[in-house]
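Pasting as-is:
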Amino acid sequence: MPTAAGRGKARGWPSVSGRPSIHAAALIALVLLAPILWSAGVVLAQGRPHWSQSRWDATGLAPDPASHPDAVVQIYAARTWGWKGALAVHSWIAFKPAGAAGYARYEVVAWGVWRGGSAVRRDMRPVDGRWAGNEPELLLDLRGPVAAAAIPKIEAAIAAYPHPASYLTWPGPNSNSFVGYLVRSVPELRVELPPTAIGKDFLPGGQIAALAPSGTGIQLSLAGLLGLIVARDEGLEVNLLGLVFGVDPLDLAVKLPGIGRIGVR
């Protein structure tokens, strides 16, 4: 009489070893963690001082109002301080109307929110200043009539920002959620935000679908934790727990968490 084991084999019952699934999980973990570990190593190797002793001074990226009377709108991003700098950037917006003597800089920060203060701050730092010693990248630079037309809309969008008293480093709302909200609200601001702008995919009010920040496609997002962007400028972006992976065929680039964009252009 055949044994129970023999009968099981005769009936074709599968033998589950678990090894393929373990290998797949290890590969996924490697793909997820390798870029982050690389970025963390770079940050540690730089040996940045404490944020209170870091440079926050201007870099000269913003045109001098005295010699540039036209309206200007700019969006910046710079690596954050400390361990967060291995993963993310901090972004902000600055603008000046035509003939203005100076800029207004707006951003969202955590400082003071727990005491009941507003997360939206104005003119905390120089308009084009370094962020805790990290050089800013100019993401958008509008000048002239286009900038002048955008400024009233920007001011209205800032006033309507739905999370003025909230800040969460992850998954949002944070500084990148704020800038993402502005660029979706003001057509003139269409810009491709960097993949390291964690929080950019946090959509307010529980929205699931919206325009991509560049305005050239669409995105789906579940509270900024899981999502997808398909757009001409962004290409294809996959958001997994706030970390972005993607490919940008037009710019011949790939997007990796922590590292950001790597490409020919």
